[in-house]
Amino acid sequence: MHSAQELASQIEALTSLPTVYERVREQLESPTGSVFEVSRLVSADPALTARLLRLVNSAMYGYRGKVDNVAQAVQILGLQQVHDLVLAMSLHAVFAGIRPARLDMKRFWRDSVLCALASRTITRRSGRPGLERMLVTGLLADIGHLVMFQTTPLLADTARQSAVQTGEALHLAERRIVGCDFAEVGAALMDQWRVPGAFAGAIGTQTLPKLGGEHAGDAATLNLARAIVEADTLGESSAQTAGRVDPAVWKLLDIAPDAIAPIREEAELDLAAWLALFFPPRPH
After folding, report:
1. C-beta separation of 201 from 213 below 8 A
2. For a Cys-Cys bond, which of 3, 58, 93, 252 suits 220, CB 3.0-4.6 Å?
3. Is residue 284 part of a domain?
4. Mind spelling out the 3-state secondary structure of 64-112?
């Protein structure tokens, strides 16, 4: 049996977040953090600069080609949003060399982006703050599975197959077979990467949001977003999906179950555009 910290440590030994992210995070955490310094850090990375400008000029932000330099983008978005987006855009580079044989990576990232978009939409509809933070938290929500399928592929796959065959909740099958579940592993990785605590708090309690304390609302958002991703995978109706969501989730979010259909439609509508923004095709 394995602990979440053990599996996260194995991944951390293989890869780490880019230096530019580490320095942007330092600026965010520092009382003297400056927009100028963050602009300089991001500008020193041409690929990151191009992706950030493409994102700010996308339909999601509405500037439509009007933002042509990083300093302007950072002033518009602010340090917190730039931090969150640099974290999101770092993920693909971090895991580019990790391709677990038993995990469909194209599907994994597609589902992760759908979870991110659903999280963002849920946050807006529930009137809660932190749209971009929840977008990135949604993108990271399933990262524990990537760790598990890289470090303990046979056990992770056995748990997945067992859940499919018996109807047992996946995280319970993982705890029984692996010794920990994907949410615990994801939170452990966030802790080891030293990203802000809100990420680990939400990711670690997404399977049972009412235990999330101050992060319960974020955890409930992830719980509902993952249900939407599962509905997409299974091809089930929004009404079916709403029926299997824990009533406590609706209460924590203060939204009605019939909101799931428009949330799902909006997230799926934006999926292709956001996949291109976060994971642009590599040049041959």
Report:
1. yes
2. 252
3. no
4. CCCCCCHHHHHHHHCHHHHHHHHHHHHHHHHCCCCCCCCCCHHHHHHHH
Q: Rounded to whole angstroms, how far apart are CA atoms 265 and 128?
A: 20
The type of residue at 255 is I
* Domain count across the chain: 1
What domain range includes position 23?
A: 4-278
273: left (phi over 0), alpha (psi -120 to 50) or beta: alpha
Q: What is the CATH number of the domain that holds 22?
A: 1.10.3210.10
pTM assigned to the model: 0.90
The vertex-170 CA angle with 165 and 175, nearest 5°, equals 115
Consecutive 10-residue runs of the chain (284 residues): their mean pLDDT?
Answer: 93 78 90 89 88 83 81 87 86 76 88 95 91 92 94 95 94 97 96 91 96 96 96 91 94 94 93 80 58
Token output for 71: 């300093």
**CA-based R_g, the chain, Å:** 18
pLDDT at 13: 65
